[in-house]
Amino acid sequence: MKLNTLNRYLALPLAMTAISLGTAQALEVKASNSVLQGGSNSSVTWPAPASQPYRVYVRVPADSTATNALYRVYPNGLPATAGACSSTDATTPCFEIPLDTTQSPGEWVQLTLANDPATQWDFTQNPYVNGNVTVNASNLNSSEVLSTGSVLFDAPNIGQAYQGGILISLSKDGKHGLIAANQDLPGTYNFQAAKQAVKDSANYDAEGQKYSDWRLPTVAELNTIYQHQDLVKATGTFYWTGVSSSKTLAWIQIFRYSSYPAYSGFQANDGYKTGALSVRPVRVF
To answer: How far from 257 is each of 216, 238, 278, CA to CA, in Å?
Structure first.
């Protein structure tokens, strides 16, 4: 893979390697370590591996002295005007993230917006569009040097902590997925109370409280939770969906039923709404 080069860019050899980061597999795009002199217009660009959402991490070489390196994320490629960067550009949006490289020598640092670790960008990569991450030394003091290394493009994987919960389903293109809350809601609830309880932020851990779109699962979504009940550490026996079958009944699913193991996984549309059942909220992206 070649670096997208214009006159203002350095031509550096790149390589791509799959490595582990936490619980997920990620793709590391490597560039030969290059030292950019502050005040110059030299840049390095790392192309995204594929068209899909990624979280982005930067490997900071130990010898970098730049205190305000400006990394830019161009999910849809570079704009026609050199150096332009606007997050509201409808065609080629750009997101600028400052990084004090002296604070993290030799470490991986995630590029985030508003310090949100769930930050990800939906990159486009094809023969016509080159979504990428770039850094330029022109804003730096002439006495500073910006050492550059690898950029890690981290794609979501089933089972990883993601956007407030645990990722349990992912579309083939990686753009959409189902997230289960990190734990069952405390206690048990009748159907109407369950619909309200999923909206109460007090029922979630700190990560879950960052999101306000939690809800009861559909019939199919609850079955996905059942299939991953060990992964999500589901502890209840009977769980609500958010789907009514009549004024008095709703769809439910049996998870672990020790008295009658053969019923484990069974779904039914005749759960009385007055019953007290467990709840595992979900959200989607």
So the answer is: 21, 8, 13
Residue of 8, 15, 38 lying closest to 152 (CA atoms): 15
The tokens for 88 are 């509201």
CA dist., res. 164 & res. 23, Å (int): 15
Angle at 179 (CA atoms; ends 267, 153), nearest 5 degrees: 145
Which has the closest alpha carbon to 282: 169, 160, 158, 121? Answer: 169
- The CATH classification number of 14-154 equals 2.60.120
Q: Which two tokens stand for residue 180?
A: 């289960």
Query: Which residues, in sequence order, are bridge partners of residue 284?
Result: 178
Q: How far apart are CA 276 and CA 28, in angstroms?
A: 48
Q: What are phi and psi of 130, to 5 degrees?
A: -120, 85
| Distance, CA of 251 to CA of 129 (rounded, Å) | 45
Spell out the alpha helix ranges (H) of 125-264: 191-197, 219-227, 229-232
Measure the CA–CA gap between 130 and 235, rounded to whole angstroms. 46
Question: What is the domain partition of the chain in residue ranges?
Answer: 14-154, 161-284
What sign does the CA torsion over 23, 24, 25, 28 have?
negative
Q: What is the pLDDT of residue 162?
A: 87
CATH of 161-284, one of 1.25.40, 3.90.550, 3.30.70, 3.10.100: 3.10.100
C-beta of residue 198 within 8 angstroms of C-beta of residue 278: no
Mean pLDDT of the chain: 88
Below-70 pLDDT ranges, the chain: 1-26, 31-33
Q: Give the model's pLDDT for residue 32.
A: 54
